[in-house]
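Hey, sorry to bother you again with one of my protein questions. I've been puzzling over a protein and I'd love to understand its fold better. Take your time with it, there's no hurry, and the full record follows here:
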Amino acid sequence: MSRFAAPACVRVRERLDRLLDRALTPVDEARDRGHLEACAACARELEARRRWWSAFRELDLPSEVEFAELTRGLGARLERARAPRAKSAQAGMLRRVGAVALAAAALVALAVFGAWSGARPIEELFAAAPRPALSLGAFELPSFEALEPWRRP
Protein backbone atom coordinates (compact mmCIF):
# COMPACT_ATOMS: atom_id res chain seq x y z
CA MET A 1 0.00 0.00 0.00
CA SER A 2 1.30 3.45 -0.87
CA ARG A 3 2.25 5.91 1.84
CA PHE A 4 -0.25 8.29 0.29
CA ALA A 5 -3.26 5.96 0.23
CA ALA A 6 -6.66 7.51 0.70
CA PRO A 7 -8.16 7.12 4.19
CA ALA A 8 -10.90 4.89 2.73
CA CYS A 9 -8.26 2.56 1.25
CA VAL A 10 -6.47 2.37 4.60
CA ARG A 11 -9.72 1.57 6.41
CA VAL A 12 -10.77 -1.08 3.87
CA ARG A 13 -7.35 -2.79 3.72
CA GLU A 14 -7.19 -3.01 7.50
CA ARG A 15 -10.50 -4.90 7.45
CA LEU A 16 -10.03 -7.16 4.40
CA ASP A 17 -9.41 -10.28 6.47
CA ARG A 18 -12.57 -9.68 8.51
CA LEU A 19 -14.46 -9.09 5.24
CA LEU A 20 -13.27 -12.49 3.96
CA ASP A 21 -14.33 -14.12 7.24
CA ARG A 22 -17.69 -12.34 7.08
CA ALA A 23 -17.00 -10.83 10.48
CA LEU A 24 -18.04 -7.25 9.60
CA THR A 25 -21.38 -5.68 10.38
CA PRO A 26 -23.71 -5.53 7.36
CA VAL A 27 -23.26 -1.75 7.11
CA ASP A 28 -19.44 -1.96 7.18
CA GLU A 29 -19.47 -4.87 4.70
CA ALA A 30 -21.68 -2.91 2.27
CA ARG A 31 -19.47 0.18 2.62
CA ASP A 32 -16.28 -1.84 2.01
CA ARG A 33 -17.74 -3.75 -0.96
CA GLY A 34 -18.79 -0.42 -2.50
CA HIS A 35 -15.24 0.84 -2.13
CA LEU A 36 -13.86 -2.38 -3.63
CA GLU A 37 -16.04 -1.92 -6.72
CA ALA A 38 -14.62 1.58 -7.23
CA CYS A 39 -10.97 1.00 -6.22
CA ALA A 40 -8.97 -1.41 -8.40
CA ALA A 41 -5.93 -1.41 -6.04
CA CYS A 42 -8.00 -2.51 -3.04
CA ALA A 43 -9.81 -5.10 -5.17
CA ARG A 44 -6.43 -6.56 -6.23
CA GLU A 45 -5.39 -6.68 -2.56
CA LEU A 46 -8.62 -8.50 -1.67
CA GLU A 47 -8.02 -11.07 -4.42
CA ALA A 48 -4.42 -11.59 -3.30
CA ARG A 49 -5.54 -12.19 0.27
CA ARG A 50 -8.28 -14.53 -0.92
CA ARG A 51 -5.66 -16.61 -2.81
CA TRP A 52 -3.32 -16.56 0.22
CA TRP A 53 -6.03 -17.78 2.60
CA SER A 54 -7.07 -20.44 0.09
CA ALA A 55 -3.49 -21.74 -0.12
CA PHE A 56 -3.17 -21.64 3.67
CA ARG A 57 -6.33 -23.69 4.14
CA GLU A 58 -4.99 -26.33 1.72
CA LEU A 59 -1.92 -26.96 3.86
CA ASP A 60 -1.79 -30.29 5.61
CA LEU A 61 -1.60 -28.94 9.15
CA PRO A 62 -1.73 -31.26 12.16
CA SER A 63 -4.95 -31.56 14.11
CA GLU A 64 -5.12 -30.25 17.65
CA VAL A 65 -4.44 -33.72 19.04
CA GLU A 66 -1.45 -34.22 16.73
CA PHE A 67 -0.15 -30.77 17.62
CA ALA A 68 -0.45 -31.52 21.35
CA GLU A 69 1.55 -34.73 20.85
CA LEU A 70 4.21 -32.91 18.86
CA THR A 71 4.66 -30.24 21.51
CA ARG A 72 4.50 -32.54 24.53
CA GLY A 73 7.87 -32.58 26.20
CA LEU A 74 9.18 -29.78 24.01
CA GLY A 75 10.38 -27.78 27.02
CA ALA A 76 12.37 -30.72 28.36
CA ARG A 77 13.92 -31.37 24.94
CA LEU A 78 14.93 -27.73 24.65
CA GLU A 79 16.56 -27.80 28.07
CA ARG A 80 18.51 -30.93 27.14
CA ALA A 81 19.64 -29.26 23.92
CA ARG A 82 20.84 -26.16 25.81
CA ALA A 83 22.83 -28.11 28.41
CA PRO A 84 25.85 -28.91 26.15
CA ARG A 85 26.09 -25.27 25.15
CA ALA A 86 26.47 -24.23 28.78
CA LYS A 87 29.31 -26.74 29.18
CA SER A 88 30.99 -25.53 25.99
CA ALA A 89 30.76 -21.93 27.23
CA GLN A 90 32.52 -22.98 30.44
CA ALA A 91 35.16 -24.80 28.42
CA GLY A 92 35.68 -21.70 26.29
CA MET A 93 36.16 -19.59 29.40
CA LEU A 94 38.71 -22.07 30.73
CA ARG A 95 40.58 -21.97 27.42
CA ARG A 96 40.74 -18.16 27.57
CA VAL A 97 41.94 -18.18 31.19
CA GLY A 98 44.51 -20.81 30.28
CA ALA A 99 45.79 -18.72 27.37
CA VAL A 100 46.17 -15.64 29.61
CA ALA A 101 47.98 -17.73 32.25
CA LEU A 102 50.29 -19.17 29.58
CA ALA A 103 51.11 -15.68 28.27
CA ALA A 104 51.83 -14.43 31.80
CA ALA A 105 54.10 -17.43 32.44
CA ALA A 106 55.96 -16.72 29.21
CA LEU A 107 56.55 -13.11 30.22
CA VAL A 108 57.85 -14.16 33.64
CA ALA A 109 60.12 -16.73 32.00
CA LEU A 110 61.52 -14.12 29.61
CA ALA A 111 62.16 -11.71 32.49
CA VAL A 112 63.91 -14.39 34.55
CA PHE A 113 65.92 -15.60 31.55
CA GLY A 114 66.93 -12.02 30.76
CA ALA A 115 68.13 -11.46 34.34
CA TRP A 116 70.18 -14.69 34.38
CA SER A 117 71.65 -14.19 30.93
CA GLY A 118 73.33 -10.97 31.93
CA ALA A 119 71.38 -8.86 29.48
CA ARG A 120 71.20 -5.17 30.24
CA PRO A 121 68.03 -3.98 31.96
CA ILE A 122 65.61 -2.05 29.82
CA GLU A 123 66.26 1.16 31.76
CA GLU A 124 69.93 1.07 30.74
CA LEU A 125 68.96 0.53 27.10
CA PHE A 126 66.70 3.58 27.16
CA ALA A 127 69.32 5.66 28.98
CA ALA A 128 71.93 4.84 26.34
CA ALA A 129 69.62 5.60 23.39
CA PRO A 130 70.31 8.85 21.50
CA ARG A 131 67.82 11.63 22.05
CA PRO A 132 66.71 13.99 19.30
CA ALA A 133 67.73 17.58 19.79
CA LEU A 134 64.79 19.93 20.16
CA SER A 135 65.47 23.59 19.96
CA LEU A 136 63.14 26.56 19.66
CA GLY A 137 65.96 29.01 19.12
CA ALA A 138 64.98 29.80 15.53
CA PHE A 139 61.32 30.12 16.42
CA GLU A 140 60.12 33.05 18.45
CA LEU A 141 56.58 33.77 19.48
CA PRO A 142 55.45 37.34 18.83
CA SER A 143 54.73 39.47 21.85
CA PHE A 144 51.31 40.87 22.55
CA GLU A 145 52.61 44.36 21.78
CA ALA A 146 53.25 43.27 18.21
CA LEU A 147 49.54 42.60 17.83
CA GLU A 148 48.59 46.21 18.69
CA PRO A 149 47.96 47.41 15.10
CA TRP A 150 45.24 44.77 14.62
CA ARG A 151 43.47 45.46 17.87
CA ARG A 152 40.19 47.31 17.46
CA PRO A 153 39.57 50.45 19.54
The chain is about 65% helix and 0% strand.
